[in-house]
Amino acid sequence: MPVSEHQVLVLDPHGSDPDSEYRSLYERGPATLVDVLGVQAWSVSDPALLKQLLTDRRVSKDARLHWPGFADALAGWPLVLWVAVTNMFTAYGADHGRLRRMIAPAFSARRIVALQPAVETLVRAVLDDVEGAADDDGVVDLREHLAFPLPIAVIGQLMGVPEGHHEELRTVVDKVFATNLTADEAAVNTTALYGLLDRLIEAKRAAPGDDLTSVLITTRDGDGSALGESELRDTLLLMISAGYETTSTVIDEAITTLLSDAAQLAHVREGRSTWEDVVEETLRHSAAIKHLPLRFAVTDVELPDGRAIRQGEAILASFGAANRHPDWHGEDAHLFDATRPSKEHLAFGHGVHFCLGAPLARFEVATVLREFFARFPDAALATPRERLQRVPSLISNGHVSVPVRLRP
């Protein structure tokens, strides 16, 4: 059935009420047509169907090859960067295998283990700054002073981004995930972002260091080929944005949840769950990425109800809704429960595009939670959770600010 014959659900660009949006998706079945800032796509919220499509060779992430709407998107879609980058995020088939093969060693288990002491040191240093940033009432914004600076410091150290550029990097990456920008505003931000990446590459070529940017510049595939110039800077964009923005959001959501639900915090303190359990349940319940743009049907793909996603139509992986689907985690799937026996989720993706940085993100968030609640055992939200403003994004979870009173 042609796309135009379906009723289309318009996704909220401000992401103000994801719970209601998820319910609307469930009511419409395993897959339904949605409007993503003017682009129509099939939102897939059923976890079984989503897993199937994420491993289906008939589904591609290469907009240039498999999306007839790509040229129109280039002309004025605010989220065009999400489908226009040339890195393993958008690659398909052998091209994806080549890029992932070249990048995977940078996230080897050995390298992540070696990084852990540095992460622990950074966490303690950032918590020192958190304590110093509190106002006269002992209140501090944890989004601004913890959830932002820690991941940007970790990824900055990993990638060799000078500390003086962290704030600039944060500003442009935040706008990549924002969905309340006009196409012109998004284009200006993309120009600024690439300017920053180009300066980083130039600096590392002139003076290589012990960092992943320097490694990627010199990396060669088995046939001796290097990353192309666009592939190099778009790979840096992928690693920096994923390493910063998504981890920042999970820290935000985890702390906000524990400070608004004493029973969940008690589960950890009394040994019924661990900090790692909290991390996994946060990833399931409040995934950093709610909806991930975009994939495309290489050929017609039949749906369980007899409808079909036609060749060339766009597909939106609705991870947030899938993770909370009652068919996967029961009727209480919408509730946060750190003691939940199964916390399976798709927060890091599934199949060949599974996130390479997942082990680092998990360790980072668990370390933050352990150290924060050890240092500030009586911390409390200074604003009720229901009054916290969500970030303006249909892509990301998280809050604009998280004011917390560190001590009574």
UniProtKB/TrEMBL annotation:
Keyword hit for Metal-binding: yes
Pfam families, alphabetized: p450 (PF00067)
UniProt keyword annotations, A-Z: Heme, Iron, Metal-binding, Monooxygenase, Oxidoreductase
PROSITE patterns recorded: CYTOCHROME_P450
Keyword Glycoprotein: no
SUPFAM superfamilies xrefs: Cytochrome P450
Family (UniProt): Belongs to the cytochrome P450 family.
PANTHER family from the UniProt entry: CYTOCHROME P450 YJIB-RELATED (PTHR46696:SF1), P450, PUTATIVE (EUROFUNG)-RELATED (PTHR46696)
Name of this chain's protein: Cytochrome P450
Provenance organism: Myceligenerans crystallogenes
